[in-house]
Amino acid sequence: MDHKILQTTRELIDEVGYQDLTVDQVAARAGVGKAAIYRRYASKAEMAFVATVHEQRMPPFTSTGSLHGDLLALVRAFHARMAAPAARQLAPALISELAVNPELEDRFQDTFLATEQACLAEIVEQAVARGELAGPVDPAMAHLLLLGSLASALYILKLPVDDAMVTDLATAAAAGITALADRRPGGPGDAAGPR
């Protein structure tokens, strides 16, 4: 049923656009009750976001063996979803709805953003274990450096983001994360650290 709801949502966004999409349309075409949709998604915006950009669970992360490689693989996967026409259409509407709907904002923070930050925490932990980073970095900051920059480029600045820019984002994020790890107490960049 989940697959049918999400597939139908994608089809309808392609046909009528996000603004004209309704939960009633999705329910009718998918052959499910509206209650079944609302048990899964708090709003039309959340349903459309899951259908077009980001499932609530991310696929298992597979390490490439380097911080830069891991960040590049992650940002490439997100770019493929976030740059799609339906996602570009949905993002401004979702941002607007999050601003006025505290319940949806909490749900968004607790599901999608928490999932992304957990993935970045794993990438950072593996980089620390490999000796690439001097210590841990706040996953929220790593998230901002990598995926926040991608979202800003696509949805606010409306830049033509290609693979060269995606690679540059991963490089910049890796450098920023490394600098933050070096600044931790006792790290190489800490003036009060061991001498």
Describe the model:
The structure is a single chain. The chain is an all-alpha fold. It folds into two domains: 1-40, Arc Repressor Mutant, subunit A, CATH 1.10.10.60; 44-183, Tetracycline Repressor, domain 2. The protein contains nine helices and no strands. The protein has helices at residues 2-16, 23-30, 34-40, 44-52, 67-82, 85-100, 102-130, 139-156, 163-183.
Give a short overview:
With 195 residues, this protein is mainly alpha-helical.
Based on CA atoms alone, the radius of gyration comes out at: 19 Å
Rounded mean pLDDT is 88
CATH topology of the largest domain: Tetracycline Repressor, domain 2
Name of the CATH homologous superfamily of the largest domain: Tetracycline Repressor, domain 2
Ends: how far apart?
Answer: 61 Å
- H and E string: HHHHHHHHH
Report the CATH architecture of the largest domain.
Answer: Orthogonal Bundle
User: Can you tell me the number of structural domains?
Assistant: 2
Strand content: under 5%
Oligomer: single chain
What is the count of helical runs? 9
Shape: elongated
Helical proportion?
over 70%
Q: What features would you highlight for this structure?
A:
Arc Repressor Mutant, subunit A; Tetracycline Repressor, domain 2; 0% strand; elongated; disordered C terminus
Please specify the SSE layout and strand pairing.
Layout: H1 2-16, H2 23-30, H3 34-40, H4 44-52, H5 67-82, H6 85-100, H7 102-130, H8 139-156, H9 163-183
Helix pairs in contact: 1-2, 1-4, 4-6, 5-8, 5-9, 6-7, 7-8, 8-9
